[in-house]
Amino acid sequence: MLRGTTSPSPALTPSKSNATDGPVTLNATVTADATALPSADPTNSANLTVLPPFISQYPASRISSACSCLNVSASTTTIVNEPSPPAGQFVGLRIEGLTTTIFEGSIFSAGHVVTTASGGTHNCDGTNNGANPFPGNTPTSSLDTAATANGFTWDGTYSTSFDDYFVSRIGPDTQTDTMFWGVLVNFQFIPVGGCQFETQPNDEILWAFDAFSGKTFLRLTSDVNAVPAGSTVTVTVTDGMSGAPVAGATVGGQTTDASGQAVIPLPRPGTYRFKAERVDAIRSNQVTIAAVGRG
Q: To 5 degrees, how large is the angle CA 34–CA 40–CA 46?
């Protein structure tokens, strides 16, 4: 613990740790009296007790690296204040294979080290290739989280020049010479690799097979999530990228019209789950409707 008096305006300067997994740090200079340190007095603002917050947040290996930046001299003390480790977040994840949906649901994920048979073990937390200064969750770490928790596997080669994986297989579907896996966040292709792009809470991640052939990415919506049994529900199919209505898609045994809408009967009580499909499109997200009452 260090006690001292702060200089009038401590300068905060971002810097990068020399450790391979070291985060960006903020260095604040605190001037201390080397001859006599007064007893801590909570009523005296001149007496400070300084404990770097990373001490309670980081594993021992990172504390050792961070504390190498703590230099004490007769006149100054440099306190290193590091950011927290990558925080987890809830995101939506959907994986659309060649003929079926491999996974769809909400997961809790954070950036982490991942391992593939073809690519080996590497970090995947948004700091890859210097894309972001602080670690976070990524589309590829989310894929790995879901695979581990739900019993499917994936594979990908690793590029040292991009510091990232190229996903080649998810579940049973392996890329070919003409069909490849692609990843979108909120229905837009990400501009960097899947270990470089950092997601935000509640983002919608889509891994799609044959993603680069110009297919439409279908989006399915409904204004309601419950209706009386024996009635109907109207759903809408749009192009997820542009928002334009999609005609000719099938959903719940019905076909969408020019406005992208279809009216689906729900004859009996129960929970109905729908996805929209069209031959030249990537199937949609799932919409769940409850039909309540006797019907």
A: 70
> Amino acid identity, residue 97?
G
194: nearest Cα among 100, 266, 114: 114
Residue 202 token pair: 């509640």
- The sign of the dihedral angle between the CA atoms of 287, 292, 294, 295 is negative
| Ramachandran class of 104: left when φ > 0, alpha when ψ lies in -120 to 50, beta otherwise | beta
pLDDT at 83: 53
* Beta-strand pair 204-209/89-96: parallel
Give the Cα separation of 2 and 48 in Å (integer): 8
Within 10 angstroms of residue 243's Cβ, the number of other Cβ atoms is 10
Structure tokens at 241: 């990228």
How far the first Cα of the chain sits from its last, in Å, is 70
Our CA angle for 222, 228, 232, nearest 5°, is: 50
**C-alpha–C-alpha distance, residues 193 and 272, integer Å:** 36
Residue 146: helix, strand or coil by DSSP? helix
Cβ atoms 237, 276 nearer than 8 A: yes
159/214 Cα distance (integer angstroms): 26
Residues of the chain with pLDDT under 70: 1-86, 295
User: What is the number of helices (H) and of strands (E) in the chain?
Assistant: 2, 24
Residue 87 pLDDT: 75
- What pLDDT, in 10s, does the model give residues 16-75? 334 344 443 333 333 333 333 334 444 443 333 333 333 333 343 333 333 444 343 444
